[in-house]
């Protein structure tokens, strides 16, 4: 194998890993912000409203969405790490 080709391949792979890492970082940050907002809004809505929609339905939906994003972020970590290892 030519030395130039190996160096070029390593640089290309490093650039791709950097792009994946940047995407994963942005995805994690936005998911964290959404999870925190929905999780904090749930008890507030329960406490300030006696209405069925605002006091029960909306907080339940918020909790379900936050739970989904939480499991999505945690579930994709192992898969993303394994994708970085070229077999």
Verbal overview:
The protein starts with a helix and ends with a helix. 91% of the residues lie in helices and 0% in strands. The model has no long low-confidence stretch (mean pLDDT 82). It is mainly α and 87 residues long. The chain has two helices and no strands. Helix 1 runs antiparallel to helix 2.
Order of helices and strands: HH
Report the uncertain regions. Answer: none
For this structure, the quaternary state is single chain
The main pleated sheet reads as:
none
Q: What's the N-to-C terminus distance?
A: 19 Å
Overall structural class, as computed from helix and strand content, comes to mainly alpha
- How many helical elements? 2
Residue-averaged pLDDT, rounded?
82
> Per DSSP, what share of the residues sits in E-state strands of 2 or more residues?
under 5%
List keywords for this structure.
rod-shaped, 87 residues
Write the layout of secondary structure elements.
Blueprint: H1 3-48, H2 52-84
Give the structure's gist in a few sentences.
The chain is mainly alpha-helical. The chain has two helices and no strands. 91% of the residues lie in helices and 0% in strands.
